[in-house]
Amino acid sequence: MAESDNRPDLLSRLADGWRRHPVLWTLFPAALALTLFFLVQGALHAMYWSDPAHRDEQIAGWMTPGYVAHSWHVPRDVMIAAIGAGDPGKGERPTLDSIARDQGISTDELIARITAAITDHRATAGPAQP
């Protein structure tokens, strides 16, 4: 008899593994799915921000301060100081339009303040490193 005849087939081995270690067989696919999710998310993030079209993108009202800071490579503190508002709460992502409206100024005026802050930061800190 050949050696392969003594081995149980794949399905019976998997069923036996499930009976012996049900927790392991449940957690491993979940861990694998989470790993793949974060791997894909990280790859998409890297591809998006490595595109030169997203660096120093023209500032618009739909953007959030975090988006502008990321695009222009400036620290978050610089953006918070430029918008003249407190640090938004965790999970909040107000747009420049909504911040300007809350402050009673035009979006163009807020964008001018942000642009000036970015220019000042780059003059003191040097050019942005992508």
Structural domain count: 2
How many β-strands, per DSSP? Answer: 0
Shape: elongated
- Tally of individual helices: 7
Measure the end-to-end span.
Answer: 65 Å
Roughly how much helix do the residues carry, as a percent range?
55-70%
Rounded to the nearest angstrom, the radius of gyration is 26 Å
Largest sheet: none
Task: Look at the helices and sheets and give the structural class.
Answer: mainly alpha
Overview of this structure, please?
The protein is mainly α. It has two domains: 7-50; 53-125. The protein is 67% helix and 0% strand. It has seven helices and no strands.
Summarize it:
The protein has helices spanning 3-6, 10-20, 22-50, 65-72, 76-83, 96-103, 107-125. It has seven helices and no strands.
Layout of strands and helices, then pairs:
Layout: H1 3-6, H2 10-20, H3 22-50, H4 65-72, H5 76-83, H6 96-103, H7 107-125
Question: Characteristics of this structure?
Answer:
7 helices; 130 residues; 0% strand; mainly alpha
